[in-house]
């Protein structure tokens, strides 16, 4: 990780505090992934109501993501980090105080604000602090907080719930979130590589001068944002089906497997790949790795739809984690390439907003699919969603089909990049 040695001391300290905050944030959030659906069932919720509660998470995301993107651009990344950390600490306490499905939906929607705020602040701050020529590598390293947290959180949450019940689980989740907030307060000001008048040799314009000022709708429908947002929409549907129904699916099949281990297997795979993919994408482009990640999602969902043994579920988890471990940091790097510093919060909020919308739709809509056709049909449908995402990306990611195919297979540049050097 010699790239960290090239950074200024204040930048390294900020990245360290940011990494600690991110690891604790995701651990708190993920501790409820395998446990909250079971809690909803325990208070009398049906499969459809489980979907509504889990899907309500995205309501908070959808209602606040764009606003928080603007706040990030105008008032700074640290403020939205603190908002996200505060919400992730408070929400588990609120779960303890409610015991009806409508109130759980309200708390779950509030909980969604945490990821809207934190991920915007985290991703934009890491991108701001990354030298353009090492952007993919640094994002790859710093994005390790998500798979690490998702490896620790579900296993911890499942153990606490099985051994001590729901109340200790929610208390521990809240405490971890509070420590994440404290770590976020330690982040200070530091120079950004893009704060200088000249970002790269031979470039006489600042990054902010390279793109015009656009409204949120103009940004959303611009070619550089529209396709990544659509891809993330369909992958959000896949993730929503996993978050809402995987624990119930494993329980329904009578397979002797703690659902938390699926998420842990996925997180380990995601963690392992991020060490290498970010640096490789700085040389080979983001497109090839996004294509491979979507293929991994397709195989995972098809395997999951036929799983009958613990090993089959765990292999599906590894493949899903491989897809997520590549897609998320590569999408962040891609949107970093395609945005100027002054609009980056809004661009990130819109592209990742597709993911939020997918999660919001997945809970209630796929809950009806699960009730009518079963969980296996649900995950077969998720495989179709991933296939649609792959087709959209491979054929439409650039200015025409020919350039799209070349970028998607690592044989051509990203023509939508703000800097041609970051293709």
3D structure, described in words:
This protein is an all-alpha fold and 423 residues long. The chain has a single domain (2-191, 215-422), classed as Up-down Bundle (Growth Hormone, Chain: A). The chain is built from 17 helices and no strands. The chain has helices at 2-5, 9-30, 36-42, 47-75, 77-97, 101-129, 135-142, 145-164, 166-185, 216-221, 223-252, 259-284, 287-305, 310-337, 344-373, 375-396, 401-408. It starts with a helix and ends in a 15-residue tail after the last helix.
Structure summary:
With 423 residues, this protein is mostly helical.
Task: Write the topology of this structure.
Layout: H1 2-5, H2 9-30, H3 36-42, H4 47-75, H5 77-97, H6 101-129, H7 135-142, H8 145-164, H9 166-185, H10 216-221, H11 223-252, H12 259-284, H13 287-305, H14 310-337, H15 344-373, H16 375-396, H17 401-408
Helix pairs in contact: 2-6, 2-8, 2-9, 3-4, 4-5, 4-6, 4-11, 4-15, 5-6, 5-9, 6-15, 7-12, 7-14, 8-9, 8-12, 11-15, 11-16, 12-14, 13-14, 13-16, 14-15, 15-16, 16-17
Mean pLDDT: 84
CATH uppermost class:
Mainly Alpha
| Major beta-sheet overview | none
Number of strands: 0
CATH fold-type name: Growth Hormone, Chain: A
Task: Report the CATH superfamily.
Answer: MFS general substrate transporter like domains
Helix content: over 70%
Mass-distribution shape: globular
The sequence of SSEs as H and E is HHHHHHHHHHHHHHHHH
Distance between the termini: 22 Å
Helical/strand content category: mainly alpha
Number of helices: 17
Beta-strand level of the residues, as a percent range?
under 5%
By CATH, the architecture is named Up-down Bundle
